[in-house]
């Protein structure tokens, strides 16, 4: 990835993340409050959803200012920058790219000049009719290569209508996953796709309002959860309060993988705390795939709640057998060959005293390519584990996601090509068990037909045609964006 100042950054994360997250969005309308700092902390709480770039758009009622750059929220903003951003409404975004390259031009919020003023927008999700939408643009070359850029440009081409009128006209034509925050100089807007694939919530913040991808972000800025934004609903928020409009009938299909891995454990989705759901999944996993073992250890931290549940369900003692370095991630330091060879140990290191001579149940949230689990099993055996029984708190991931989560392609997904027994042999475990799909669904307390489970069962709730697939489809059409400078 090229950085605007010419440095080369690389992802040093030696542990394959089960799936790349897919952006976090935050919005606030709060006169009298330091909205730039509120948005900063909202994004900080959502950092796990996207670590490639971050940005804030803010308005004082007269003009919109956008500040964004590549990097983590804490790398993009500092005290002086936030102090300089004055206004009463703002939107924020942290990005992991699912359409378009991870370059500065594709960072969000995106901004276009409309007939009267400006329009800024942040998007969590992934559209599946981007080429169709791009064809609606009147010959404009896009400034970037994302589905979000197309949406912002279309909204800004409002033909003299208000932002609200333009959005209500456009949103019914948009297909795929979208939790959107957008703004003009005076008003904050929030809209969620008819399937409600990505989470999106509304909160009360003193005399103002906040919207966020997850309830945890509301907690962290001191906002009180009011309700979920409904699938197919658009909110407008200004000095008159919150007004709700429906642009499509709700057909709920919330993402099941949010419960497994994507969302923070302290977030609540559909009335159920994610941590409690993960503990319950672990309890069910213990019933479904028991093991004769001495200790249950999690792969921290996303495997921890399910490991707690497994220990409770099985009666096998729980222990922390792996220490995680939470700070390994994106870095501008090029690892030496020696460091590369340490691989998984940069992030996870076994506690030899805990695991030596023990028969272990190791609980992880998912298997994508299998490389992490293979390295992990080998490392645990080298540290003296007598047996390693791997238990996974999601069903095998067999299909790619087209709605905003960047899994590997089907060819790279180990479960797309191998049976459970073949995967067990491939990772070198003594036994391997995945939670069944129906058990996972039951743990969420949400009806199966109101959840997207496509990466597990191949049933896609919104049909995706071949021409609309691919992260770089607009780059093929427009040519790759040139490197630019930060605003
Ligand atoms: S395919 Fe999987 S990751 Fe994608 S929205 Fe559906 S459940 Fe979530």
Average of per-residue pLDDT values:
87
Our count of domains comes out at: 2
In spatial order, strands of the major sheet run 4-3-5-2-11-10-12
Cα(first) to Cα(last) distance is 19 Å
Specify the helix fraction band: 25-40%
Overview of this protein structure:
The protein has 487 residues and is an alpha+beta fold. The chain has two domains: 4-253, Aminohydrolase, N-terminal nucleophile (Ntn) domain (Glutamine Phosphoribosylpyrophosphate, subunit 1, domain 1, 4-Layer Sandwich); 276-444, Rossmann fold, CATH 3.40.50. The strands form seven sheets. It has a seven-stranded antiparallel β-sheet. A six-stranded antiparallel β-sheet has the order 6-7-8-9-13-14, covered by helices on one side. Helix 9 packs across helix 10. The two termini are 19 Å apart. The model is unreliable at 1-16 and 478-487 (pLDDT under 50). Bound molecules: iron/sulfur cluster. Iron/sulfur cluster is lined by residues 197, 255-257, 401, 403, 405, 452-455. The site of iron/sulfur cluster (SF4) has 11 residues, from helix 17.
Structural features:
single chain; 487 residues; alpha+beta; Glutamine Phosphoribosylpyrophosphate, subunit 1, domain 1; Rossmann fold; 2 domains; 18 helices; elongated; disordered N terminus; binds iron/sulfur cluster
Write the layout of secondary structure elements.
Layout lengths: L9 E2 L12 E6 L5 H11 L7 E7 L4 E7 L2 H4 L2 H6 L4 E7 L14 E5 L2 E11 L2 H5 L12 H10 L6 H8 L5 E8 L4 E5 L8 E5 L2 E5 L2 H6 L3 E5 L4 E6 L2 E6 L7 E2 L1 H6 L5 E2 L2 E2 H15 L6 E4 L5 H11 L7 E3 L5 E2 L5 H6 L5 E3 L1 H4 L3 E6 L6 H12 L4 E6 L21 H4 L2 H8 L3 E4 L2 H8 L6 E2 L1 H4 L15 H6 L9
Parallel strand pairs: 15-25, 18-22, 22-23, 23-24
Antiparallel strand pairs: 1-20, 2-5, 2-11, 3-4, 3-5, 6-7, 7-8, 8-9, 9-13, 10-11, 10-12, 13-14, 16-17, 19-21
Helix pairs in contact: 9-10, 9-16
The chain binds iron/sulfur cluster (SF4).
The site of iron/sulfur cluster (SF4) has 11 residues, from α17.
């Amino acid at each position: 990835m090229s950085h605007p100042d010419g440095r080369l950054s690389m992802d040093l994360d030696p542990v394959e993340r089960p799936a790349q997250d897919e952006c976090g969005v935050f919005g606030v309308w709060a006169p009298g409050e330091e909205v730039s700092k509120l948005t900063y902390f909202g994004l900080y709480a959502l950092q796990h959803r996207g670590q490639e770039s971050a940005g804030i758009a803010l308005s004082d009622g007269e003009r919109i200012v956008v500040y964004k750059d590549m990097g983590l929220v804490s790398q993009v903003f500092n005290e002086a920058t936030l102090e300089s951003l004055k206004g009463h409404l703002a939107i924020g975004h942290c990005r992991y790219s699912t359409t378009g390259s991870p370059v500065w031009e594709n960072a969000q919020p995106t901004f276009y000049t409309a007939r009267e003023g400006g329009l800024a927008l942040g998007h969590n999700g992934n559209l599946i009719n981007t080429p169709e939408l791009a064809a609606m643009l009147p010959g404009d070359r896009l400034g970037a290569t994302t589905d979000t850029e197309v949406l912002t440009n279309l909204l800004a081409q409002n033909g003299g209508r208000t932002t609200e009128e333009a959005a209500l006209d456009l949103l019914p034509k948009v297909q795929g996953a979208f939790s959107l925050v957008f703004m003009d100089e005076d008003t904050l807007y929030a809209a969620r796709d008819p399937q409600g694939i990505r989470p999106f919530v509304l909160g009360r913040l003193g005399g103002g309002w906040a919207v966020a991808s997850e309830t945890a972000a509301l907690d962290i800025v001191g906002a009180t959860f009011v309700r979920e934004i409904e699938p197919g609903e658009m909110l407008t928020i200004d000095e008159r309060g919150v007004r709700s409009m429906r642009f499509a009938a709700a057909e709920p299909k919330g993402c099941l993988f949010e419960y497994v891995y994507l969302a923070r454990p302290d977030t609540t989705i559909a009335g159920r705390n994610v941590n409690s759901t993960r503990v319950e999944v672990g309890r069910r996993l213990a019933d479904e795939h028991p093991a004769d073992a001495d200790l249950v250890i999690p792969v921290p931290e996303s495997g921890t709640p399910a490991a707690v549940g497994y220990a409770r369900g099985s009666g096998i003692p729980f222990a922390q057998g792996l220490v995680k370095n939470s700070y390994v991630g994106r870095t501008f330091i090029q690892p030496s060959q020696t460091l590369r060879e340490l691989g998984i140990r940069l992030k996870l290191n076994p506690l030899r005293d805990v695991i030596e001579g023990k028969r272990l149940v190791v609980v992880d949230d998912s298997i994508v390519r299998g490389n992490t689990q293979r390295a992990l099993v080998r490392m645990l055996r080298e540290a003296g584990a007598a047996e390693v029984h791997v238990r996974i708190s999601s069903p095998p991931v067999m299909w790619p996601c087209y709605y905003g989560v960047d899994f590997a392609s089907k060819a790279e997904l180990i479960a797309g090509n191998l049976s459970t027994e073949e995967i067990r042999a491939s990772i070198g475990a003594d036994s391997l068990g995945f939670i069944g799909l129906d058990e996972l669904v039951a743990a969420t307390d949400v009806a199966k037909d109101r959840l997207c489970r496509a990466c597990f069962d191949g049933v896609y709730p919104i049909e995706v045609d071949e021409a609309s697939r691919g992260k770089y489809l607009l780059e093929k059409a427009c040519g790759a964006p040139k490197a630019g400078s930060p605003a």
